Amino acid sequence: MKRHSETVMKYVFMAAAAVSIIAVIVICLFLFSKGFPAIKEIGLFKFLGGTVWKPLEGQFGIFPMILGSIYVTGGAIILGVPIGLLCAIFMAKFCPKGLYKILKPAVDLLAGIPSIVYGFFGLMVIVPFMQDIFGGSGKGILTASVLLAIMILPTIISVSETSIRAVPESYYEGSLALGATHELSVFFTILPAAKSGIIAGIILGIGRAIGETMAVVYIAGNQAVIPESIFDGVRTMTANIVLEMGYASDGIHRNALIATAVVLFVFILIINISFSLLKRRND
C-alpha cells in the first residue's frame, strides 16, 4: 500500500511539474508568435532604437520605455538591495527576540500588500514629499525607484534571512573559535556561505521591480520620452502595455505592445542567466 501511494504521488508531482513547463511554453509561443511579426514589420532597429512612440502615426519606438524600465529598476536595486540585505542580517543574527516577533510579521505584511495599494500610497505620500523637497510634479524616476525599493524589500529580506539561518551553526562557532568577533563572523563567514540564497532573493526582487506595473503607472509620470534627470517622468515597458492595450486595435498597434512584452521577457531572461553565471563563477 505504501509503495502504491508513493508511485501515485510520484506521478502527481510529475504532472504538476509538466503543467508548469507547458504553461511557460504556451506563454512563450503566444508572445513570440504575436510579437516577432510586429518586430519584423516595424524593423528591429526602429522598434528597439526608435525614440518616438506615436501609434496613430505608425511610429513604434520603445527605446524611451526600455531606458525607463532600466532606470527605475536600477534605482530600486541601489536603494532596496542594501537595505533589504542589512535588515535580513539584523533579523537573523542581531535582532532581540521580542523585537523579532514584531518585525517579522511586519515584513510578511509588506509582501501581502497589493501593488495598487502601494501605488496609491506613492501617489498620496511619496509624490507630495518629492514635490516639497525637489519641486516639480513629484512624479519621475526617483519617486518610482523609492516605491519599488519598498516593494522589493520583503522578497529580499525573507529569502536572505532564510538563507542566512540555513548556514550550519558550526561555521559561526568555528569563526569564533579562531578569534573573530560576532560581527566579523557574521559578515565574513556566514554571509559568504549564504551567498547563493541571497543572490536568489536579489534576482526575485529585481524580477518584481522590472515587472511591476500598477504602482509605477501612478507615480512614474508616464512620459514616453528619454529622461534627462532622475526627476523627469518616464514610461516603463509594463506601463506602456497596460496603458494602451485596452484601446489598441487588432492590427500593428496591439502586436507592437505584445512585442514590447517579448522584449521585457528577454530582459528578465538575460538577468536570470547573468546572475546564474555569476553564481556558478563564484561557487
Count, helices? 12
Cα separation of the termini: 43 Å
The proportion of residues forming helix, as a percent range, comes to over 70%
Largest sheet: 2 strands, antiparallel
Uncertain parts: none
DSSP strand tally? 2
Mean pLDDT: 87
Shape: globular
Which class best fits the helix and strand makeup?
A: mainly alpha
Proportion of beta-strand residues:
under 5%
SSE order, one letter for each helix or strand: HHEEHHHHHHHHHH
Indicate the radius of gyration in whole angstroms: 22 Å
Strand order of the largest sheet: 1-2
Structure described in brief:
The chain has helices spanning 2-42, 44-49, 63-94, 97-112, 115-134, 141-166, 169-177, 182-193, 195-211, 214-219, 237-244, 252-282, and strands at 53-54, 59-60. The protein is mainly α and 283 residues long.
Which terms would index this structure?
mainly alpha; 283 residues; 1% strand; two-stranded antiparallel sheet; globular; 12 helices
Descriptive report:
This protein has 283 residues and is an all-alpha fold. The protein contains twelve helices and two strands; from the N terminus they run H-H-E-E-H-H-H-H-H-H-H-H-H-H. The chain has helices at residues 2-42, 44-49, 63-94, 97-112, 115-134, 141-166, 169-177, 182-193, 195-211, 214-219, 237-244, 252-282; strands spanning 53-54, 59-60. A two-stranded antiparallel ribbon has the order 1-2. A hairpin with a 4-residue loop joins strand 1 and strand 2. Helix 1 (2-42) packs across helix 12 (252-282), helix 3 (63-94) packs parallel to helix 6 and helix 4 packs across helix 6. The protein starts with a helix and ends with a helix.
